[in-house]
Fold this sequence. Notes:
The chain is of the alpha+beta class and 165 residues long.
Amino acid sequence: MDETKLHPLVEEAVTQYDIAHQVLPCLPELADTAAFCEHYGFSLDQSANTILVASRKVEPTRYAVCVVLGTTRLDVNQKVCELLGVKKASFADADMTVARTGMMIGGVTAIGVTDIPIYIDGAVMQRREVVMGGGNRISKLLLDPQELMKLPNVSVIDALAKARE
């Protein structure tokens, strides 16, 4: 019996956009990047983290989904603000992330998000394959990052993220 299931939004999107992928099982308590990579034998530079960012002090709020490697740090204060055309932006909290994407922290993925911009750091696109959330805390996706280009609203942005110090 296979208990590994993608979030319904993610399942629908991989089918709709014909995204080649492999589904990996994940224990919910190991869904966060560092724990997942350590336990399942992936390196942080194979992990593509998806982060929801929201503008601050702008109505209506502007959102973006950003995909960066686990070895990098999203440049929210400069690059993402520039892309959104705002002065201030921050990481969305867990409640806002669930409300806006329908996905839980530890499983958020760009796949299945259709109505806001998706920015992918250029470094992600240099990898042969990446692991990313399955939309929930019980699955991950393994795929060639070029497959993400099949999604709507995708832009590859060089220097979206910076190396961690």
